[in-house]
Amino acid sequence: MTETAPDLDRLRGDAPPRNHDARTIAALTANPGCARRGLMDAAGVDKDAVARHLGFPAPFGQSQFAITRGNAFEAQVKADGCAELLTLLRERLGLDVAEVAYDDLEVVAGNEGRELRHTRTRRLLARALETGEGTLFDHPLLRLEIAGRLAYLEPDVIAFQVRGRLHVIEIKSFAVVDGQAEPEQVAAAARQSAVYVLALRRLAAELGHDPGRVSHEVFLVCPENFSNRPTATPLDVRPQLAVLERQLARLTRVDAILEALPGDLVFEPGDALAESVRAVEARYAPECMAGCEMALFCRDEARACGATGALGRSIRDDLGGVDTIATALALADGSLHPSDDLAETAAQLRAAARLRDEALLAARGGAA
Amino acid sequence: MPRSPGVPTPDALEARIAELRAAVRRAVAAGDRRAARDLRADLRLAERQWDEAVLGDAGTGNTTSPGGQDARESEARGLLPVREQVHQALTLLGAPAAPKLIGSVYAAFFPGEIAGSRLTSLRRDEERSFRTAPYARPYYLCAALTADLLAPARGLLTVSTWPLEQRIVGPLSPRTDFLTSAVRLAEHAGRGTPSPDVRRLLWRFASNIPGAVTGTVGTVEPADLAEAARAELQVHREPDRRLRASAAGRARTRLDDAERLFGSRLRALHESGGRRAAPGERGR
Amino acid sequence: MSVLSSLARLRAASTGAAEPLATVRHCHLVDAPLVLVPLKLSGEAAAPLAVMLGAAPDDATLLVVPQPRNRDLRFAFAADLAKLVLNHIETSHGSVEELPPGKEGEERIRYGNAPQLLVPNRGGVAFLRLLGRSTRFRGTEGPYAVDPAVPVLGRWLTWFAERHDHPGSSLLHAMTELLRLHWATGQSSLEDGNLAALLGWIDPPDGLDGPSAAARAEDPVACPPAGPTTDPSFDNEVLAPAIAAYHESHGDPRALERLRAAVHGQVAPTWELMWRAVGVLRALPEGASVPGRWERDRDAFTYYHQTFGEAYPQARRDPPVRAARRLHDLERAQDAYDAQRAFDDPLVMAEHRLSGQAFGGLVTECEPDRLDETGKRPKLRPLLRIGTEDPVRLDPGTVVCNAARPALKGRIVEFDGGGVLLELTGGMGRRLTAEPGTVPGVGERVCFTSLSEGSWGAARFPDREDTPWTHGGPPAEYVPTDEDAEEDWS
């Protein structure tokens, strides 16, 4: 298929590479400074299996109620030739009545092979960009280069062509109540959609078209209020695109991380696994819990060495670069003399310690 | 763990059920599927034992009697075999349709219901039957064929006696078929007094066809629905027909009898694989 | 977050026990709060699964929707919940205080008490808000009729959720927020969202310290989440089979009982935690300004209760004037609340001292009888020099007041490395000599701050009929429609 850096391949041992999906790619942007995650992702290591083997299984279970609800809503919106979706697009975007073409790219002649599906996606989207033919392209199979490796993307979305531009339509089953949805869910959807937009733009460029013909405006289709009736919300994903592109560009530098590591490093199940994982530096922050399979392991490690980052990014920022709790407390009680660059932080900490103690003493005195 | 204890007390069983539930959840969390499966089996056993110990025969009779359930269901469904029910619904619809729509149409216009679980294997059974004894039956429930590769289209059923043009689907066909079905259902409903189920079904069509809703929200005038659907159909019909006709021509020359009914899975795969391998990606 | 609270977290992390962030309680706690522990069905916006509620630890009622996707069962649940909640509201207002008549001579009263709702976390507040939104427009007549109590519940829940947005209000609280206001743990704020973990740091079960209690709390099997979302493995392995069995049994009471038992196991631990947390909070002495804020809450409750019958359900979206006024009110309330907490609590004031908006120390020089005679009449203007190590960030001329007695006001004259020179301007009586005890003497410990409770007055907003065209002009009077009443809840 594609040439992968052999150095990266050997990190997995005998295991096959794990595929990215938009969720894992979007999650890359959450903690760009983490070498451990960057390396494991670039090598396609099955982080879920690694975390489980280390005794820290990722708590990312999904409720069957949520899955059922999501599938049912999607099926409903797409039923009868996307009847509800077409109505929505006609009402909201003034889609012309003639624009009803629907191409299903999920299966090619009963075959679900990725190469085949991607080829067909490419052909139909090329035609759409050249002649304007086609309106809805369901389940396109896209590709995106991640750290020098082509990852297939299985978006659960519809690519939508109108007036010579392609849009991404993402169907989500969380409710939009009186025009508002849960911000975290919208943000997650925007991050994921940005991955699809980027992959579509790369495809357009490969096909010799202006990537700008893939719109940064995606449409989020969600149930309205407490009903099953769909509603469409346009979402501008330019900020997410910018972060994603920057992060993907940075990811290509994993070879620099790799150089500094022992040549026989491998993330294979076995007694040496924990040691191998620890050999690559992590940058744990509580936000990792939302998306990285390794988070519980890294949190345990960060806590064991008393890292301030385990308490949250804002605390690490408040402490202006003091990495460990012990150091911060020693600066606060004056038992450690700060280097010049920590002088200001140390002064703040000492003042804070004095004010805190004074207030607690006053309160105790007042109560007595 | 002993699988057949003497007679455990309900309390002991309850404790064991709680313990097993926790164990199943931990196994799932740890990604250990085999352990989860085994534990689940133990859990179901313990739950059955609890039922027997606490509820006695009444409990089992009420909850898990397959005979009773089946009898109730077949009574509700009427006595027709599933394939005949589907045939009736498809004949009324007059266009390739998904099992879900077939089920709704049958439930609205005919007595009883189609058992959803039987629909999933229907097409495979029909194909097997045809291949063993071709044309032994007056009709077969078969696939819709995709216009480009003449392969079976996902999740659509048709009737073998329909002209090939009607059974082939191009990009515009999902919409034209939806509109065609709307016209036919509306006309059929317009001949009598539509039941609430029929009205609900018609509303599903009308709310997604421009100009079809003429009265208040939730109500449909069948004649207006048919007229609106025909008006939109006018826009798509000709380009859709051309594509279907040319694909049907190809199907007639290239496919054998069974493939014409159930789609050309293997050849399409082979063809497209071979065609793609040479100029493919890198030749760009 | 400030360095001060960061330091508290660091200390908690190193000792394994929570550190106080407050020395007094900054919220009101009624004698019998209505604790609600709601659960919803995963994947749905506001499909209730269950709620455990009651106003005493040994008086819990569990309501369960045995098939949350069934609309009729949902509304039956809403009706049951409505009866309990509305009964609590009606029995919580206590005696009626007669107030002096208003400007136009109208009668004014205030209830002696008000209902207080406590839920485990922010998700619980959001759930009540959505439940309110999904029930308040329901019609009680016609084809989609519901129990008359249902829309009444919807309006009350909406009202409570709106009061929750009001800084300093104690009518509806999320327990995690209350605890975090008073304690810092040695874990991150993300982990503080878990009530069991948070309380584990503050008041660990016997034999455990903060970290071990929190670790136990993170195991969803041993310690069910506080909702409203249930643990996925509970959903898949316990709840789904129980709901399916209930469904297939066509409402067999035994299947229902099994389902209730399963759900009970998920909410009961949180119920216990809620009451333990109430006890922990009650042990703190109440802040001095808390009764005043509770009085505002009682006013709001009295008004809403008194006008309930004449009003429509709250609109889906606020019209512009109301939205602007509400925002302004919230900002004012936030400022007042922040200042009041600082005046009530030296530990909160310490935050302002660290940020330079307050300073404290010993009085080093005092000139209590100084008069300013530059004007027509002499004025009492004592001078005070306060030695402080605090990083003061106040310019000369800034008006400050005494933290212990805010009536005592002064103006900063100068500030140098070692201290602040202050000219006192008010709060010492009307004569040319200060009332005894009003001016701090040399050697006394004092704290002055630029904070004040009402730094900016209430702004004026146009009446509804004068809504400017920039904001869409006067909005149509909101009248609920049939469509509102018939909106699906599926």
TrEMBL record, chain A:
Residues 7-20 have a biased composition (Basic and acidic residues). Residues 1-20 are annotated as: Disordered. This is Secreted protein. It comes from Actinomadura litoris.
TrEMBL record, chain B:
Residues 54-75 are annotated as: Disordered. This is Uncharacterized protein.
TrEMBL record, chain C:
Residues 457-490 are annotated as: Disordered. It comes from Actinomadura litoris. Residues 480-490 have a biased composition (Acidic residues). This is Uncharacterized protein. It comes from the Bacteria.
